[in-house]
Amino acid sequence: MKPFNYTKWRKKLNQIFENRNKIMNEITKTHNSSGHANNTKPTLVAVSKKQEDYKIDMALSCGQLVFGENRVQEALKRWNLRIKQNHNIQLRLIGPLQTNKVKDALNIFNVIETLDREKLAKCIKENYENDSKTDELYIQVNTGNESQKGGINPNNLNEFVNYCKIDLKLPIVGLMCIPPLDEEPAMHFCLLKKLAEKNKLKKLSMGMSNDFKEAIKFGATSVRLGTLFFGPRQN
Predict the structure, then answer these.
(1) Domain assignments of the chain as residue spans, ordered by start
(2) How far apart are CA 74 and CA 67, in angstroms?
(3) Which residue of 29, 66, 183, 232 has the fewest CB atoms within a 10 Å radius of its CB?
(4) Alpha-carbon distance 45 to 177, whole Å?
(5) What is the pLDDT of residues 159-204, one digit of tens each?
(6) pTM exceeding 0.85
(7) C-beta of residue 51 within 8 angstroms of C-beta of residue 229
(8) How far lies 19's CA from each of 29, 32, 206, 209, in Å?
């Protein structure tokens, strides 16, 4: 076993601390100069998928408490013990959810951001209990109508929101989107904002490492940053 290198560990810790401080300053600056400065400052969601465990612990030691994971099983393995040790951690599912993973997801995630189809909505309703950890659901909208990407077609969103909120009585609070890589993200953020207003939903999860400042200008209430926060992730 290699001896513990305190100097190397401290350097990596300082890097994550500096990354977080820089991001938080950018969020504050962009938010204050936007048309939404009177609203609550957007939440920084640190995307921890495929990041090494020591980086997660470093992020926690820097005061970061909100994290995004893409896979239920990976989240269970990584977060069960950490959540028991720190009840202030908030975990968000930001990746696709399969129906056979719904029960586990409801037991570990505070927020599920990728509700995107009727079958999944029904499954969540069937498995939802009074002691379920999940207390907020976002509907993912496929703003670019990309066949390879999950999400509700914008034209079908109003009907789906009503179905989830009125028929199933699910705690729908907001919308989420991932703009196409080859298109200007601003038009997609603008569309999501309008759809949220039309459906009286207050929360918007939009913006990642390369476009989070643009998302904030359009009213993002949370931004999902991975590489910018942690650095390169494992393959």
Answers:
(1) 6-230
(2) 13
(3) 232
(4) 14
(5) 999 999 999 999 999 999 999 999 999 999 999 999 999 999 999 9
(6) yes
(7) no
(8) 15, 20, 20, 12
Looking at 3.30.420.40, 3.40.50.150, 3.20.20.10, 3.40.50.300, the CATH number of the domain 6-230 comes to 3.20.20.10
- What is the distance between the alpha carbons of residues 4 and 181, in angstroms, rounded to a whole number? 41
Quickly tell me which residue has 């994550």 as its tokens: 16
CB 69 within 8 A of CB 89: no
Instruction: Judge contact between 115 and 164, C-beta under 8 A.
Output: yes
Residue 229 tokens, joined: 């926060």
Alpha-carbon separation of residue 135 from 26, 58, 101 (angstroms)? 29, 27, 17
Q: Name the residue with tokens 């009585």.
A: 169
User: In the 3-class helix/strand/coil scheme, how is the chain assigned residue by residue?
Assistant: CCCCCHHHHHHHHHHHHHHHHHHHHHHHHHHHCCCCCCCCCCEEEEECCCCCHHHHHHHHHCCCCEEEECCHHHHHHHHHHHHHHCCCCEEEECCCCCHHHHHHHHHHCCEEEEECCHHHHHHHHHHCCCCCCCCEEEEEECCCCCCCCCCECHHHHHHHHHHHHHHCCCCEEEEECCCCCCCCHHHHHHHHHHHHHHCCCCEEECCCCCCHHHHHHCCCCEEEECHHHHCCCCC
Rounded CA separation 94/91 (Å) = 10
